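Exercise 7. Given the components listed, write out the predicted structure of the assembled complex. Treat all entries as one system.
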Amino acid sequence: MLSFPLWSPNPYILSAGIVVLSYAVLSTSWNFVGGFTGYMSLGHAAWFGLGAYGTALLIARAGVPSFLALGLAGVIVAVLAVPIGIAALRVRGASFVIVSIALVLVLLLVFQSWRDFTGGSDGLTVPRPFPDLLRPQHHAVFFYLFAALLGLALLAWWTIDRSRFGLGLKAIREDEDKAQSLGVPTFAYKLVAFVVSATFTALGGGMYALWFGDLDPIFQFSILIGSYMVLMALLGGVRHLFGPLLGALVVGTAIEYFKVSYGDTQFHLVATGLLLAVVVLFMPDGVIPAVAGLVARFRPQQGSIREETAAELLERDRSSASPPTQRQNRAEVRR
Amino acid sequence: MVTGSLFFQSLVLGILLGGLYALLAAGLTLYFGVMRVVMIAHAAFLVLAAYLAWDVHQRFGIDPLLSLIVTVPLFFLAGVGFQRLLISRLRPATVTMMSVLLTFAVALVIEGMLGFVYSGTQRRVQLSYSAASIQVFGAQVAVVKLIAFGLAALSLLALFLLLTRSRFGQALRATIQHPQAARLIGIDTDKVAGYGFGLGLATAAVGGAALSLDSTIYPSLHWHWIGPLMAIIVVGGLGSIPGAAIAAMVLGIMQSLLQLPMGTTWAQTVFYLALFATLLVRPQGFFGGRLAQRF
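Answer.
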């Protein structure tokens, strides 16, 4: 796969490959929160946009060198994510999702309205880091940069997955109250996962800014991007290291294809929506469990406290509990 | 310079806007109450209803309000079907989280279809009374805004009476308070939940007609509405209808008043500021129970 820039037929296909790769970075970053703790953020585009704009503004307004700006933007977002995380993680489930959506909507408002600083809806041009490279070479370089970032994110996820910290996060996912009563410092754990996730997403956003070179609040702070991250991670499987990557390959390719085929219409929204609905309704655990046998050889042993989710346990309890009561009822009726 | 009469004018407009917010937030609260579902698609249905009203006016030249005769029952049935066919299929343990994603998907589909059918062009209903306005205690108020408010107030009153006076309302409130206990005393909670959903969507139909009277509509308009509505139900305390109504009124008025010094766009941020302030001070919301923190 890494040889893609060498055999990709034309610069457009190569750039589509970079987009898919950037989606993989984003959904893997999303999975630090979504996969480990079960907190589904629909507003991760907020971090993506902040990373992109942070990088761009540092270069354009402060004259910081490109990749230093990228790193600085990552640090800034990490710092910002702490207070926001403290507020957002005080609520669970649906309320958390609402907060995450609100976050991206309010940032969209701010970045659109604050014209003299962010360029507003006129957009913001990011100076290119390698001005003397030709377009195809530029794409190839960024393909490897994105691949490196993806590798870093995957490595971080894998490390956490095998650590005691990761175990604590998964305990939160299964039953937060019980985890807390067992002495897991749930709030601190959630917050660390949230900040790590935000930082990686921001780095993905910053890299995108450096590559694409042109930012617009509508696209950087888009609920749609946030939902792509969720869709990709869910489709591949949030419990697996390569789940979001697989999801990004499938969904990202599909999105790029839809955009080319139905670019002018809103049809790609319908397609995305239907795909998300199908995933949620029919395979909320992702496709990886379905082909687990094949993948099992390539991925490390899971450090989960149990292989079944709390939901599956509950359902099994229910289904094993219901037949006897039905039989009892029938017996009573007969009597 | 902000004069007294300008201030009063904004206050009146804020109350009128707050009424519409209250109606829509009540619908959202209803879904959450009966099924623990956060319905992201509510605002998309709102915009869909607005488009239908616009279409009816465009095609047959009749008043958009008359579209209510068709859209309200249609949306009610759609709500029942939505609950029965989609929401009830989700696993009980993860229903809250997954329903958010599912309704989000529905919102995307509706937005996409609206763009597909009506194109992204901004639409506006032109009525004989569109430009008319009357004096209310010295404030100039557009007639269409008054009609929208009246519609919202009437529907909220009807909703309130239905919930408090009818047997179905009792069953619905029982289901919201304690689903298991409601089942024990013989309430068919699945059916009630379905009707509750239908009622919620019916409020979106009314809101949509009201919206079509004095707003420019476009397919992605629902993102503009969903943020404030979500903020309102969290501030009000998820699951509390009075909480939602009060929060809607207060925030609607604040938004309207802040438009004077800050401008339209920045005034919108009041909803998000209120949301984050609520989380820091009182995560379960200012009214209603402790539901919000858990779900």
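Discussion: The mean pLDDT of chain B is 85. Residues 164 and 170 of chain B are 6 Å apart (CA to CA).
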